[in-house]
Fold these 3 entries.
Entry 1:
Amino acid sequence: MTIYQNLIAGEWVGGEASDNISPSDTNDIVGAFSQGTAKDANQAIAAAKAAFPAWSRSGIIERHSILRKAADEIIARKDELGKLLAREEGKTLPEAIAETVRAAQIFDFFAGEALRLTGEIVPSVRPGISVELTREPLGVIGIITPWNFPIAIPAWKIAPALCYGNTVVFKPAELVPGCAWAIVDILHRAGLPNGVLNLVMGSGSVVGQAMLDNPDLTGITFTGSTGTGKRVAIASIEHNRKFQLEMGGKNPMVVLDDADLDLAVEAAANSGFFSTGQRCTAASRLIVTEGIHDKFVAALTERLKRLNVDNALNRETDIGPVVDEKQLQQDLDYISLGQQEGAKLAFGGERIERQTPGFYLQPTLFTEATNQMRISREEIFGPVVNVIRVKDYAEALSVANDTPFGLSAGIATTSLKYATHFKRNSEAGMVMVNLPTAGVDFHVAFGGRKASSFGPREQGKYAAEFFTVVKTAYTQP
């Protein structure tokens, strides 16, 4: 079997390898991928540091061309890369292909941004002096990404980093090295100079920790758990390093009495259960007013009965497997906890068997939940959703905001009054009206509030806030 190696200073570097196993079929080995060491991480950072002076002053046409080549190859290979993603992460094939297309769109967008770099020239308060404000690259960027979006999240971090002239050390999640390797290989062949982009696969405790400990990283952008995010922050403060964190969510979706029932049910099913519920923007708290509650629960239960849980590569599959055994056990533990807390298990909750051995879990719906239960406070990260009954809109808004997180929130209503009020008063970074809470465009800001995010927003033109620094220069002729 081919061993897929790390990329350091423009050279593919081997080492001890680990099998990448499909959660849809544990007999399917996606590939063997090298496991980096702390030494590899430090060498990658040194290579990125050495490459930074030249790349940071490279021409915008060079950056544009490389990013555009990457975008073109990703879109041309969307079916192949989508199948790889589905095999290693467990998303259904249509979802995986759609994510691959999104990655191509991100690289295409930032290829354009490379040509749209701007600054300002303004007069000083002192006559005869001009003031020039420009953005310069931050430096050597550490990128640490999660397993749930194995090609889109790396794309929306790597593309702006390179666009603005930074160099990169990239550590993907251990569970999904295949997509990471593919995207780095595409960029490497697109013409990136040696050392500009480095890939070090391996464990967070080894590779990730070495990155955090190295003072030559100028910035680090992290997406993952809240606990790990806090460790990233502490380590970064010690080195006076700029950091950006995207972490957990316990996202609410409010359903009011006046909602279109069919629309609300479909938005809730998509929000809570598609991608196996393994999205940081998934709505795991459905906050439903009492006038529509019983009809909504009945209709959503019927919708869940029609969802087909199976191998991610099967065309008829609606929901793929949980990503691995550890995550599946965590989901099952929370399901047991919910029952102990007094919530009613209205549907699902069982591990199921399919033709291929994998980590399959029924979509799980709790009713009679309260917002004080642990299943309503803590991120489960699986196809497990709670329904919380409330009296009216005022109580729904209060419950929706009563969470330590603040990533995404949604409301289903036909009332312009309530929709407008919710958009203004929801304590979330992203708000959806009559739409799933998951699913955002590639060219606009992504990020949350409270314990969900820290630092500048990701994606779109807002990415410049993290990946660049502003320089102010004064001139007197």
Note: The chain has 15 helices and 25 strands.
Entry 2:
Amino acid sequence: MKHIVVLSGAGISAESGLKTFRDADGLWEGQDVLEVATPEAFAKNPELVLEFYNQRRRQLLEVEPNHAHEHLAELEKYFKVSIITQNVDDLHERGGSSRVIHLHGELLKARSSYNEQDIFEHCEDIKLGDLCKAGHQIRPHIVWFGEAVPMMDQAINICQTADILIIIGTSMQVYPAASLMHYAPQDIPIYYIDPKPNNMKNNGVYIISKTATEGMKDILTILNNS
């Protein structure tokens, strides 16, 4: 069974109503990302950071997977599919995909601010004073700017075994995630779905200039006919 590796980003979640990470002005939901997405920001103003992610979590619980998520899950009928996502939402899983790696963490999990291995499911607001079992403040299970990406090695290993690569909803501009496509074997088919694919100047990449949902319809047709 051929192995499809999918690299996904905020564009696929946007069609479900979740805002992309940064708007054109560099702000995320009106906040400077450096004020809400760094360890320094959490140390400086933990209440602001916690409330920012509380709002993101509440929003996530109000939206549903879209057809692009469901089309990706449909591929599992015919292929082994591994999804490596920069998204912190659970829409791939709710859409039916069974193998999902979250490079940047998961919004519906929390972890101890003292022990980064102490990770657990958490769908409620996190407030200052909410403690882990060891008595330390808990924080969102999010990889902030300046922190290591613990799933990166696993993601590289997965990319190295790809027979087909699909890139969807990401400009491939954020590192280290942007480097992953270069670990895929040479000469495999690469499909890039983006309504404005200005950043992809790579010979051999099949560009589909459509939204995630419309682009995935094309992918299903192409793969069914291959």
Note: The mean pLDDT is 91.
Entry 3:
Amino acid sequence: MPKKVDHDERRQQIAEALWRIASTRGLESASLRDVAAEAGISLGRLQHYFTTKDEMLVFALDHIGKLSERRVIARIRALSGSPSPREVVRETLAEMLPLDDKSRSGILVQIAYFIRAVHDERLRATAKEGIPALRAFIAGRLREAVQNGQIAPHRDPDDEAMLLIALVDGLTTYVLLEVHTPEEALRLLDRHLDQLFS
């Protein structure tokens, strides 16, 4: 009897093979043939799931986003009691930093994807989708903090959320370039949050 294939699991296997290549050699080195070899499947089998490299890239980026969201939820659930807005914001932003090998690989793939998206309108539209949702989520927690008196009322939650995202993007770059260690990046993030939540 032929073995039943879990198609979602196979797509994830392909996405992870793409990440391994992209995180070490960049996306330009990630041809369908190379990804199939890295995943241990035939090119024909890979093309059963993704007919073009762009389809594969879009899926892989979406998959990274979902995994990151799950890790944020797990970090927040691991906090004791009912987490404060500051704790939720901190754990969300910390998850966006390259603090270990797995998050570093995911971020390298995202960067390679974003570089490609700068010149490709369809990919750019996909890349931009998550930013408003992330900003709205963080701004919502900041609004709670303003209402609770934890953040000064003159601070605009939408602007502060975008500034926090930009701060983490900058810290991510410096960690990847080894200007800062992951621990230093977290310290700087905490310092900024201490100033915001005063």
Note: The chain has a mean pLDDT of 88.
